[in-house]
């Protein structure tokens, strides 16, 4: 795992087999200035991201000793704004790097993109961020990225704050814009930000239903970005699923384990970290996204506090990272409680 405030990568293990990584069962693998979010293994290397770089170290599975031979893979990532830098590899060895917006609403989408680097670029290393292909454009903050069993890349997006549009009810930020589950089926497409937003719940008589695209109020009178422009799928790819506003989805994982019932396999789990921009707050949970015929049809609660409010004193977690363990358990990290929770299934 990456410990952002400490700027280090730590391996957690369970030597005594009690199901818990005790404080003595830890090893610092690497330290680097600014390490903040992304981490992955690929091709004999451990990769991690900072706000400005993607780094790697030669790595052998099971290593608990400090790594040496740090290399720069991608440099010159833009700083400031949203600081997460999600990294993921596809089956062809191409590296994807996601960068979020500089502000709540930027003037354009130049920064808010996923860039893709070829296997040759990755192998060579020290490649400038701007030399990567713009794989997906118009993504305000696509923090969670994951491939499904069909090799398709999916992402979860955090929408803008403080949304107010007079003709749609004025201050509509409590339930809008929707957080998004996006499918990146074709390289080079545009997904709306900052010119458009996705509806989650608008006032009766005004709204047209979740996922409907609307022009952002800051651009709707610029002569180009109208509601009609935003709804033209030749211009904007709408999300595959709309999720509640300000739940702040930070990760997604497709379940491929053998512990949960068979009907859960190939469904997704999404972590809702929760946001400051809604009262009462919502999120603070993990949801299951049910798929049918390869597409999402709904989300439902999976890991949450059994109360009307997941921000209650008895619920200390704000979910962040997700993973599937070797025994089919679902791992959930919480940056509020400082814990990693393992969720299993007993028949």
From TrEMBL:
Coiled-coil intervals: none
InterPro entries, per the entry: 6-blade_b-propeller_TolB-like, Beta-prop_PDH, Quinoprot_gluc/sorb_DH_b-prop
Domain Pyrroloquinoline quinone-dependent pyranose dehydrogenase beta-propeller: residue ranges: 2-344
Full protein name: Glucose/arabinose dehydrogenase, beta-propeller fold
Source species of the chain: Stigmatella erecta
